Amino acid sequence: MSSSAQPGAIERRRKVSRWLNSLSHSSFPGKRKPSTLAPTPVPKPTPRPTAPKPKFEATPKTVPERQPASNSETDILNMMEVIEGFEGIRLKAYDAQPNNPKVHDTTIGIGHNLNRPDAEETFAELLPDVDFEKVKSGEQEITEDEARTLFKHDIIKKVNEVKELVGNDVYNSVPSDVKTALVNARYRGDLTEEVAELINEGNWEAAGKKYLEHDQYKNAEQLGIPGVIKRMDWNKEQFDTMIEKVKPDPK
Fold first, then answer.
1. Nearest residue to 182 via CA among 226, 234, 230
2. For 180-219, what is each residue's pLDDT tens digit?
3. How far apart are CA 34 and CA 135, in angstroms?
4. How many whole angstroms separate alpha carbon 234 and alpha carbon 238?
5. Burial of 182 (0-12, 13-18, 19+ CB in 10 A)
6. Are 142 and 119 in contact (CB under 8 A)?
7. Measured between alpha carbons, how far is 122 from 130 in angstroms, rounded to an integer?
8. How far, in Å, CA of 96 to CA of 104, rounded?
């Protein structure tokens, strides 16, 4: 039975094959005709708007550079360094001119004169917790921070005095070391109105000579203040740097 069934199975496969073959060629003869309907157009995607480019320089600065200190700040620091070098710092009251019978120069800190008219008022403003009378008598000391507070206040005050004496335009036109010399001279009390007038006129050579005619310069050794000579010489050296730069006003 198996031998007679096998040809039948083969025959069935042939029939199926012929049917499939006739389905391809009889039911759909020839090539498939294209559709007469127009194809539905596919819309193009709307282009995405591009963001405008930022208006940067070729090398934009993302972090601003730190600005240097202003000239006035630099000048003040220079003055404080130079003047403290000449004055020194003492936290207990002392007589700055011990051999001068005409003057009792009670001083503290960095050359802060305790006999000047505004001394007590200055203490009340800047050091309200400090007993001025005890400090002046030597009974009480001040701290280094308190000394520097008085010092900075005095420097700014002397800068303003110098500007009034020599003129604001003259002060602003000179180099930092000359500013320091002017304030150094005023801080010590030897920038006289006569010297300032010569400077205002642009006659720096005459101003330097007149400056060293000060009594305390000529008698520094006898007065017990020998450091004044070196200090005033330094100031004059700075004044002399202006001789070639500024011509005196003709009268």
1. 234
2. 999 999 999 999 999 999 999 999 999 999 999 999 999 9
3. 115
4. 7
5. buried
6. no
7. 11
8. 8
Tell me, letter by letter, the H, E, C secondary structure of the chain: CHHHHHHHHHHHHHHHHHHHHHHHHCCCCCCCCCCCCCCCCCCCCCCCCCCCCCCCCCCCCCCCCCCCCCHHHHHHHHHHHHHHHHHCCEEEEEECCCCCCCCCCEEEECCEECCCCCHHHHHHHHCCCCCHHHHHHCCCCCCHHHHHHHHHHHHHHHHHHHHHHHCHHHHHHCCHHHHHHHHHHHHHCCCCHHHHHHHHCCCHHHHHHHHCCCHHHHCHHHHCCCHHHHHHHHHHHHHHCCCCCCCCCCC
Do β-strands 90-95 and 112-113 pair in parallel, antiparallel, or remain unpaired?
A: unpaired
Structure-token pair, residue 139 = 């009974």
Complete domains list, the chain, with CATH: 76-240 (1.10.530.40)
pTM: 0.70
Q: Tokens standing for 84?
A: 């403290």
Q: Give the neighbor-by-neighbor strand order of the sheet with 112-113.
A: 90-95, 106-109, 112-113
**CA separation for the pair 217, 74 (Å, rounded):** 29
**pLDDT tens across 33-49, in order?**
444 555 555 556 555 55
CB-CB contact of 91 with 232 (8 Å) = no
| Residue type (1 letter), 202 | G
Give the count of alpha carbons within 13 A of 212, CB side only: 16
Rg (CA), the chain: 49
